[in-house]
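step 4 of 6: structure.
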Amino acid sequence: MTDTTFDILGIGNAIVDVVARAEDTFLSRHDMHKGAMILVDAGQAEAIYAAMPPGEESSGGSAANTCAVAAALGARVAYFGKVADDQLGAVFRHDMQASGVHFPSKPLIAGAPTARCLILVTPDGQRTMNTYLGACVKLDELDVDESVVAAAAVTYLEGYLFDPPAAQAAFRKAAAAAHAAGRQVALSLSDAFCVDRHRADFRELVARDVDILFANETEITSLYEENTFEAAAAAAGRDVALAVLTRSEAGSIILRGSERAEVAAEPARVVDTTGAGDAYAAGFLAGYTAGKPLPVCGRMGSIAAAEIISHYGARPEANLNKLIAGL
Amino acid sequence: MTDTTFDILGIGNAIVDVVARAEDTFLSRHDMHKGAMILVDAGQAEAIYAAMPPGEESSGGSAANTCAVAAALGARVAYFGKVADDQLGAVFRHDMQASGVHFPSKPLIAGAPTARCLILVTPDGQRTMNTYLGACVKLDELDVDESVVAAAAVTYLEGYLFDPPAAQAAFRKAAAAAHAAGRQVALSLSDAFCVDRHRADFRELVARDVDILFANETEITSLYEENTFEAAAAAAGRDVALAVLTRSEAGSIILRGSERAEVAAEPARVVDTTGAGDAYAAGFLAGYTAGKPLPVCGRMGSIAAAEIISHYGARPEANLNKLIAGL
């Protein structure tokens, strides 16, 4: 196996977040399910935006958040995702590059605008997301540069990538290229509603192509349609070489064959949970690709997640390297 | 005098802020003067943006910030400013309207993009601003709807409006229309460098057309080229009916004829001073147009400013009405 150029290659929906604070009544008035991500079309996005309080824009996207956090932790990171040739696409590109992430994907010309996710943050810190996929639906196999995949220790795929239809082919091409080069494939299940939408495909993909699975409690129980976390975790442990399962304030559990590590959550004052799972995966993978033991990888994930949920937005504000110093 | 439809009409540069955290070394490396606002052209803006850390976008613009804060305080507010027909222009428009501000200005079609201000916030909370005026340079007399001016108790003009050349005519037209309708004209001096650029014009305008002058210590001493705050304040007191002078953590001083009110600053943990003066003016004018005594107007300004500097961005996050309850 040749040396790697990148520790992590993320592939995902390239999205700009529009974050606004809202009361619970706003969610109920617009039939939104708190904590979930739903897909909306252009017209719905416009209607929700018109009704939303003033917002703040920042680059988002699940795998893209993971990439930005991992780069802040010192990992060598690349990212594939589809933005449009517009102002928000330029914002997304700037933020990735300024985060130190290699972002070679060409923008979509003369198509839908850059994707945006309208995020309502309620006073309890929960985020409820309405995603207009825009240019993301044009991400396809052609966007997967196999030489970059082959040069990355871990190719990390977000489950949301199963929503735009053409991206599934990109997904499978990347997984095949990674394994052909002797690399590993990681998948994050993204959210329970996404798992519901694609359960059969996910089950097949996880069993066949995924080496490292990231999921939270509702996602993993949904994937395996099990009633208990332990039963779902056992199923994951049989399917993948490495299962990394998060349980919010109850910490995380990491399973590798007969090895089991339990990691406590890092204490944090919750302001906005947007990006918590993305940041956990970033910390974990930054540790993992640096050869750290699993409990340390989990600690790095917990610390990164705690930083992200302590402020609005899914990208780091504090110096993450200082926070993990000594691990 | 007929009844008013609006308490405050703001006129200013319609700008989207791009806020990033940076070390002091970033400022020195790019020859930036900490705390100042400088104008940059499209090429300079691109170069600075390329060098900047990841940012967050939010609607800004000095008078626009004042309008959003005043509306949050319950004032009836309108705003004139020029955005382009692009994504950032749509963001700006959404945020004004979602703040409850009447924003009738037509966007610029097929010209420069919406203005943006590249803001570097250093660890001491100071913001250093690089403004690309873009579509703002096309704001002119035609954008001043005199019926709206006549319907507003106070027309509030930001000093920065003197930077785009055509806006000066808009400025003078608005002042004339306000006075013709028996209304008042307020001016904020914006910053000391802006005063330097336009001192003679400002001096003439203040003496002739301004009823209410907002300035901080460096701005007012620069305007009157006085060495001491008290000498400059006395000069302002002679020029305008009402002078509202802020001194950061030393509070504010309000002069109306022989009346003098001194108001303490509200304690705050400084995160980002962007918009502090804008918020002070908003609180003051919301109180003033509601008929409050000057010390109460000053307190409302101080409370609004304290909220704004306690977080990133120049628009309110907390419920401002709760913060001023009982005043």
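step 5 of 6: annotate
 - Chain A has a mean pLDDT of 96.
 - Chain A touches chain B through 26 residues (CB under 8 Å).
step 6 of 6: archive
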